Model the fold of this input.
Amino acid sequence: MCFSGFVCACRVDNGISGGKPTPVHPREGDELLTALGRALVEGSLTDESLLSETVTEPVVQILPRANVIKVGGQSFIDRGRVAVLPFIEEVIANLGRHEMIIGTGAGTRARHAYSVGLDLGLPTGVLSVLGTYVSMQNARMLHYLLADRGIPFIEPAGFAQLPLYLAERGAVVFFGMPPYTYWQRNPAVGRIPPHRTDTGAYLVSEVFGCRSMIYLKDERGLFTADPKKDPDAKFIPRVTVAELAEMDLDDVVVERAVLELMANAQNRREVQVINGLVPGNLTRALEGEHVGTIITSE
Done:
């Protein structure tokens, strides 16, 4: 049976073939598949030599003017109005000047949920679900504070409308936790989900080919040690992923999964970590200034 709007690739020979569809073979030169398309159809998607042929065309940057801003949960949002309200004012001041995709961290409440879940023996994928909802709470709070400006809150299902929201309102708010939930990969050590809100925000910037990826923390950027605990910790203004691996630091300022993803990035090969508690730092970073630590993939 042929349905309206679709091309039927068969022919019915009434009285000749008993009414059964007879395939119509495309004429020579009518094939729609490219050489790569035919190779993908006929080959195996685990064949590395075939996969290497899939990077011949440049990747489209879907939102090249947008800036992804990840607002730390424990380092920033958990501080309440002293940190959040100045941030809201700075976002409003940049509306019309910069497109902003604002992602939220989960913070202390997620750590409490993780601790209870671990005590109950819950697996990593379930812990990821718990962290997702805490991150969502923080996103909704920022959304409500920006609601009078028409800034929407979006969930993963709403990302198809992201270009429209940015064109109309100039900014959106989303929860940074990537939607892996039960499909979260188990970490090499322990059971805490390895892909959390830093990773989710980074993936948005990479997939959409955004202009920048800015992490708002409560420190200047990356240090050789936690500056809150070690007064001798030295600030690192710029570093590559390879150099970080050689340093083998006990603690880094972003999730290690981000550094792993940057190694194979096609669009977002640089991120900046800044102290969002300093007034004007966000605006300077949006303008392209170096105000914190810049981490590059090479």
Summary: Residues 1-17 have pLDDT under 50 and may be disordered.
